[in-house]
Amino acid sequence: MTSQRTRDRLIERLLEQGITDKAVLNVIRGTPRHIFLDEALSHRAYEDSSLPIGFQQTLSQPYIVARMTELLLANGPKERVLEVGTGSGYQTAILAQMVERVFSVERIRPLQEKARQRLRQLGLHNVHLRHADGGMGWKERGPFDAILSAAAPEEVPAELLEQLAVGGRLVIPVGPVGKQQSLYVYDKTEDGVEEMLIEPVLFVPMVTGVVVA
Ligand code: SAH
Prior knowledge:
Elements: H1 4-16, H2 22-30, E1 51-54, E2 57-59, H3 62-73, E3 80-84, H4 90-96, E4 101-106, H5 109-121, E5 127-131, E6 144-149, H6 158-162, E7 164-174, E8 181-189, E9 192-201
Parallel strand pairs: 3-4, 3-6, 4-5, 6-7
Antiparallel strand pairs: 1-2, 7-8, 8-9
Bound molecules: S-adenosyl-L-homocysteine.
S-adenosyl-L-homocysteine (SAH) binds near residues 87, 90 and 150.
């Protein structure tokens, strides 16, 4: 179930769906997704689908992880990256292998703790985790070259745009809970912010406040 053949099949699927960035595909090929799931679900880890991780949250579909990572890195290498919604830590692990430093915020403490263990298990030490409401960003550690949100707000939080460096890029799903949402890219320039609509998506909502246990 976690054989190289199964993993290669996932990469073929991503290619068919239009993921072209070789570096992204290589990192996905080399990153075990099954360790980010509970054992009962790990046999489904290399399917191209989102999977439950508890607390009504999901591990994102590989296609969407690949697409968002590709978009995030498309306009040049990134050093400091903020992620909102660590969840299982899978997207975090992909990012950590492609940028210098990842700052990842999660509001549900038990998810964050599991993610921390898995990232350590993979030897990814360039990740800084924080238990907080990521809709507020992480001001002390900004500005960021790139920001990726794995949860969908109804409107883009001003804090995230504020904490983006000039030349930086925000990749974020936006839209109402359970209804049509869209993936957007925001580029911060000297003159302001440019918005690009990418494609329809379905994400868990960005929620305010934190959950301790
Ligand atoms: N990339 C993750 C996605 C997890 S789902 C993965 O593949 O595992 C999205 C995550 O965003 C959930 O864990 C949810 O708890 C978190 N989240 C939602 N709103 C948030 C907020 N305001 N601040 C931080 N995390 C948030």
